[in-house]
Amino acid sequence: MSEKIPVWRSIIRDAALNSPKAFLTALKAKNCQISNWAKDITSKPDFRDSFSDTEQKYDLFLLITAQLTGKKEGGTTEEVFVGADRLGFQKCPAWIGHQLRLDYHDQPNKEWFLAGMELITVSSGGPSVFCLECDDSELWLDGIYAGPHSFWHSDFLWIFCRPHK
Fold first, then answer.
1. What is the pTM of this model?
2. Structural domain tally of the chain?
3. Nearest 5°: phi and psi at 52?
4. DSSP string of 58-103?
5. Cα 104 vs. chain centroid, distance in angstroms?
6. What are phi and psi of 5, to 5 degrees?
7. What confidence tens digit (pLDDT) does each residue in 84-102 have?
């Protein structure tokens, strides 16, 4: 079914960006804003473990919650993830949020989307994902609480992936 949904863009992890510190340094050098929440997620072992995946190139798909859940009113994080799997998409390795923030310079103002990724528990104890946004022409990497029962409106954007062919 995902064959009908076009690839939004492809992404390759920059081999030089092989640690959380390297990514944060690169983001700062590109004048990207990084929230404290995103820094907290980045410091967690689950983020570092995302570098162990052998695939380095992915096709990304930008979808709205309603496409993923099949419900016009939206759905929960759990329903979004089940829908992505049903459509043949994978959760993104956590590093994709950082690499995409570095690569996606022309993000329209006020656009924001969530990274469909394994939830990473932040220091405050909440499961979170990365959020990429453009706010008044500033490019942000942020984090957002995404518990399994968190509700997302139907038009909220998500990215999911598949290995590039």
1. 0.93
2. 1
3. -80, -10
4. EEEEEEEHHHHHS-TT-EEHHHHHHHHHHTT-BPBPTHHHHHHHHH
5. 12
6. -95, 120
7. 999 999 999 999 999 999 9
- The percent of residues above 70 in pLDDT, for the chain, comes to 96
- Taking only Cα atoms into account, the Rg of the chain, rounded to an integer number of angstroms, comes to 15
The two tokens of residue 65 are 């919650």
Q: From residue 104, how far is each of 11, 32, 134 by CA, in Å?
A: 10, 11, 10
Residue 89 backbone class (left: φ over 0; alpha: ψ -120 to 50; beta: rest): beta
What is the pairing mode between strands 127-135 and 120-121? antiparallel
Query: What are the tens digits of pLDDT across the range 39-85?
Result: 999 999 999 998 876 668 999 999 999 999 999 999 999 999 999 99
Residue in this structure with the two tokens 């997302």, named with its chain if needed: 152
Contact 122, 143 (CB under 8 A): yes
| Range(s) of the domain holding residue 77 | 2-163
Task: Please give the C-alpha separations between residue 66 and each of 45, 62, 72, 93, 158, in angstroms, as whole numbers.
Answer: 32, 12, 5, 23, 10
